[in-house]
Amino acid sequence: MFGKTTWIKLPRNVLVGHGVVDQVGAAVEELSLAGRPLLVTSPSPDDIAGDRVRAQFEDVATTTVDEAGFSAVGEVIEAAEAADATFLVALGGGKPIDIAKMAADELGLGFVSVPTAASHDGIVSGRSSIPEGDTRHSVAADPPLAVIADTELMANAPWELTTAGCADIISNYTAVKDWRLARRLKNVEYSEYAAALSEMTAEMLVDNADSIKQGLEESAWVVSKALVSSGVAMSIAESSRPASGAEHLFSHQLDRIAPGAALHGHQVGVGSIVTEFLHTGENGAWRDIRDALRAIGAPTTAAELGVDDDTVIEALTTAHEIRDRYTILSGGVSEDAAREVASFTGVV
Ligand SMILES: NC(=O)C1=CN([C@@H]2O[C@H](COP(=O)(O)OP(=O)(O)OC[C@H]3O[C@@H](n4cnc5c(N)ncnc54)[C@H](O)[C@@H]3O)[C@@H](O)[C@H]2O)C=CC1
Ligand SMILES: O=C(CO)COP(=O)(O)O
Ligand SMILES: [Zn+2]
């Protein structure tokens, strides 16, 4: 008997467009969410759009997240309980969205995601990426009930946040290669549908690179659609595997060794150049990945990330320690080999 079960959780409404941040109230009404929301945000997004969101509710509480981590999740839960909140609205980049997603899941409340930057593909996904000590967990959590992606807000955000989102999508190429490798060698659960959607999302973004230009609102549109589709791939897989492989482990290690040095998306992009080389060798597709990153203006070297060469080597040689996820870096890459690949690809 066929005994497999899958539970694909997706947002009910996704609004992408100019000025849609003023439709958060309408979206909440459409979802029949009643009562008092807790707005979960971080300082810059709160300055930029907090008042516009608050103005749409008669009674609303606000809490700001400074540091990502399980303690921040606990603080949001306490703030929601103290405010008698009946649902959460997350406004900002990946940090407040991930923290609100997990807090809402633990509280059993719905939440609405209002990204202020097209900087990462967690805006839609049913996962929260939470750092804890020496590791970083990919925690299952219900995805947002609605996603409201205002292309005007996103287009006015610092340009590097958009190029970070593009690089997070380009990294899907190597994430899927790691997933297939893990399937072949470790028999990990794999979804061809999710893998194909993830790869196609990266392909379409690269094909549309000409429309991704600073000052062009269409860029925020193209990138938001890609981020939504990548998030859906993670939901179908019930795992971040379609969008997170060794290049992400490298980035998570950089977050620990050089906190705050560069954006998540930029780090995973540089990681992808190296891990593509490790997968397919010197005549493989690593130049395509590097050129795609260059075309949208994302970093391709340690110096452009703002970290020194030794930091990159340390992150590469220790990436396998951060999480039990089989990838091309599992078992560890030696320091000599790491220096050789990083130097051949021009990363250091
Ligand atoms: N759950 C998932 O599936 C995924 C989660 N992530 C998470 O997302 C994080 C990365 O997201 P980021 O957005 O880079 O992090 P972030 O939330 O720390 O934002 C980066 C910076 O951009 C600022 N910012 C955001 N919108 C702005 C705007 N409109 N104008 C000016 N500044 C603005 C923020 O205040 C912050 O200083 C990762 O660390 C990871 O935790 C990333 C990918 C997938
Ligand atoms: O960033 C992600 C996908 O882009 C997912 O992050 P994790 O590596 O924490 O699963
Ligand atoms: Zn990512």
Automatic annotation (TrEMBL):
Its cofactor is Zn(2+). Keywords: Cytoplasm, Lipid biosynthesis, Lipid metabolism, Metal-binding, NAD, NADP, Oxidoreductase, Phospholipid biosynthesis, Phospholipid metabolism, Zinc. GO terms for cellular component: cytoplasm. Its EC number is 1.1.1.261. It is found in: Cytoplasm. Belongs to the glycerol-1-phosphate dehydrogenase family. The gene is egsA. Substrate binds at D121, D168, H252. Catalyzes the NAD(P)H-dependent reduction of dihydroxyacetonephosphate (DHAP or glycerone phosphate) to glycerol 1-phosphate (G1P). The G1P thus generated is used as the glycerophosphate backbone of phospholipids in the cellular membranes of Archaea. This is Glycerol-1-phosphate dehydrogenase [NAD(P)+]. Glycerol binds at D121, D168, H248, H264. Transmembrane segments: none annotated. It comes from the Archaea. CDD domains: Gro1PDH (cd08173). Pathway: Membrane lipid metabolism; glycerophospholipid metabolism.
